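Shapes recur. One chain:

:::
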Amino acid sequence: MKRKEWLVIIAVGGISALISILISGALFGSPKKNPIKVPVVQKISADFPLPQTDENYQKFFNSKAFDPTQLIQIGNSNNTEPFQTER
């Protein structure tokens, strides 16, 4: 390639880069014109309120519902580990 061809390739590349910067600035705008506002998240706490005492939980918890955390005993057996083998 001749030196003149290299200059044409560099000039075309520079002009196309300039045009693409101008077009992208027109389409997307600058960050100064369109500031983004993001919501702030509150800090997570390790302290959780009790559902029985906190009024926010009373709105959606049913106080008459069955409590699945209670121990349910079926029959008269006192064995708490029925599938363990005795030695």
Observations:
- The helical segments are 3-28, 55-58.
